[in-house]
Design goal:
mainly alpha, Endonuclease III, domain 1, 3-stranded antiparallel beta sheet, 44% helix, elongated, DNA_glycosylase, alkylated DNA binding, HhH-GPD domain-containing protein, HhH-GPD_domain, DNA-7-methylguanine glycosylase activity
């Protein structure tokens, strides 16, 4: 995806997808089904180096309300008792899990008084719409660099070509030639992106199941290997499609501008500074980022104006504004605008 700055799909700005920008984010696609994203079980890691290799004992796993606690088990081998400390299976909760938003807001209020004031004046977000990962990723590619209306038109024709959203699967997309895609308004470059994504599914490098199960770091690495999908797109996908709770889109101009205004910084924080500045928001940086977009929206700082505050040259400002506008037109998935999210 012709991405720039940090792999971002010709955008690099304020918040989520589509028409949203500067303070607007994507909103649930009316045609997508509203279902909860399944938990992502993680593997057990044995901490003891002399843990028995055979099933010579029992393991007790403790999971309460999404929280896990290490348990101690005793295994017998060669008549010797050995104590093995294991890390139980961790069940990752998404933002669409019941009560998770309330937990996130409680944590953010307690950890950051500045953010608490922003939370107080906005309705909480909702993350309850889910599309199959392949469909969501294909959709994000199609919306790149397009105004929301134009993107919606092309997406509708693309879906019709596949026989409906249920038919948007790797095999169907690979069966479409670049010429067929060009006839419905898809550029040759985007056609190559769609085919690269589909081929990675066909060869087993990616799958809907593996995407849901992967941890954030691995998922970021795997998805940025797909042509046309950069860091900004992956962050938006993780937040608005998979509802991952702790994603910080460090390259998004809207989030960065929100942080600058929230803490009264003289300059727009660099992406490299964002991790440290937003450390206190963990493990709910996705929700905090959502509030940064709303904060910017309330402050009346449209996406196009953000570049002007960075001290860039006129040419750079124009380029950033261009990226910024496209970034929020990108409509990554469930959300069309921040305003519609909550």
């Amino acid at each position: 995806m012709g991405e720039q700055t940090q792999n971002q799909p010709h955008h690099d700005s304020t918040q989520p997808p589509p028409p949203p920008e500067s303070s607007t984010a994507p909103s649930p696609n009316p045609s997508s089904s509203s279902t909860k994203i399944p938990f992502r079980p993680r593997k057990i890691r044995k901490i003891s180096s002399d843990a028995p290799k055979e099933n010579s004992g029992t393991k007790s796993l403790s999971i309460v309300d999404g929280d896990t606690k290490p348990t101690t088990t005793t295994a017998t081998k060669n008549s010797k008792n050995r104590t093995v400390r294991v890390l139980p299976i961790v069940v990752a909760r998404t933002l669409s899990c019941e009560g998770e938003i309330a937990i996130a807001l409680r944590h953010l209020r307690n950890s950051d008084p500045h953010l608490a004031r922003v939370i107080d004046v906005h309705q909480p977000p909702t993350f309850d719409t889910f599309q199959p990962p392949f469909l969501a990723l294909a959709r994000s590619i199609l919306y790149q660099q397009l105004a929301y209306k134009a993107g919606s038109s092309i997406y509708s024709r693309f879906v019709s070509l596949c026989g409906g959203e249920a038919g948007v699967v790797p095999e169907a997309v690979l069966a479409l030639s670049p010429h067929q895609l060009r006839q419905i308004g898809v550029s040759g470059r985007k056609a190559s992106y769609l085919h690269d994504l589909s081929n990675k599914y066909r060869h087993g490098i990616l799958s809907d199941a593996s995407i849901v199960d992967m941890d954030d770091r691995s998922l970021f690495t795997m998805l940025t290997m797909v042509k046309g999908i950069g860091s900004w797109s992956v962050h938006m996908f993780m937040i608005f499609s998979l509802h991952r709770p702790d994603v910080l889109p460090v390259g998004d101009l809207g989030v960065r501008k929100g942080v600058q205004l929230l803490y009264g910084l003289e300059e727009l924080p660099r992406p490299s500074q964002m991790e440290q500045l937003c450390e206190k928001w963990k493990p709910y940086r996705s929700v905090a980022s959502w509030y940064m977009w709303r904060f910017i929206e309330a402050k009346g700082a449209p996406a196009a104006a953000v570049a002007v505050t960075t001290g860039a040259s006129p040419q750079q400002q124009q380029q950033q504004q261009h990226q910024h506008q496209h970034q929020h037109q990108q409509l990554l998935d469930p959300i069309n605008s921040i305003a519609n999210l909550g």
